[in-house]
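ligand=iron/sulfur cluster
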Amino acid sequence: MNPSADAPVDRLGRRFADLRISVTDRCNFRCPYCMPREIFGPGYEFLPRDAILSFEEIVRLAAIFGRMGLRKLRLTGGEPTVRAELSTLVRMLRETLPEIDIALTTNGSRLASLAEPLKAAGLDRVTVSLDSIDPEICREMNGVDFPHERVLEGIEAAAAAGLGPIKINAVVKRGVNDEGIVDMARHFRGTGHIVRFIEYMDVGATNGWKLDEVVPAREIIERLEQVEGLEAVQAAYTGEVARRWRWSDGSGEIGVITSVTQPFCGDCTRARLSAEGSLYTCLFASVGHDLRGPLREGADDEELYQRIAGVWTVREDRYSELRAAMTDDLPRLGRVEMSHIGG
Ligand code: SAM
Ligand code: SF4
Ligand code: SF4
């Protein structure tokens, strides 16, 4: 969508373009790097239903972001497919924002049955998280013993429904799944699906992140070159998060998300809306800006636009760049969890 003439620019000269909407803080997985079981156990209190934005509220806010130059909208979570009637939300967003690219990030567990209805509702693309093609490592990394064949079925259903090219996100954790990088790349080479290896990040305050568990992008690429030569591909647009590579024999593409070792804050065009309607301007933020309050107290669209634009105008987040410049870990207490605002 073209931004209105007064679309805001943040303090580091960045324009807004991408909105990630978390539609729930709940998830049916317990990936240790995101929602460790010890913290997100049976006694964990998720948001009550009335705290979560309704579909109508989400669509109204999305339309206001449209005025700010929204280009891509991604539904995420928690696990977005555990929210009932997700296709209805997609349909409502599509009707309101006909020209926007609408994508979904999912753990793939429910995609085999949902891919077709989501496509029919107007979804453009999916990104599926799958950390390994080794069944045992997958079960360990999803924390609930979920069989990885069901995720693979979901990926195929999404491709058959026309939701491709499918991106497959794999978080790489040293000593857990890094030995499987090459197998993973081989498995999907030539399928048209794009595997993207993600450097394990220090998001939130609960995953016990340590720098020595991160496998740097450079090392990931070196290992992949054992399979076949790789050539760098130019970014398709400003703000693209993955560094792209192409197999030199033409059998497809892979990506590496280098948030730890080669931060990309300078191009960051992303904002995140949590399930209870708080706006976060950085994945590593501690504080969100409440939009649900004014929305439910009757603010009109212009007031909501001014509030959102005002937050963007004073934005100066560049957490990953600051982390890269520091030798000590940055303080983590109070940081919002990734399951709260989505990846
Ligand atoms: N549940 C959905 C899923 O897993 O695809 C959507 C939400 S999840 C928070 C979004 C993405 O964040 C996933 O691809 C996940 O692998 C990634 N992620 C979660 N914790 C991470 C971490 N500590 N470091 C890097 N990526 C992480
Ligand atoms: Fe759930 Fe996704 Fe987090 Fe895994 S990464 S626990 S699937 S929200
Ligand atoms: Fe954007 Fe924050 Fe990530 Fe930097 S650290 S790229 S500002 S979300």
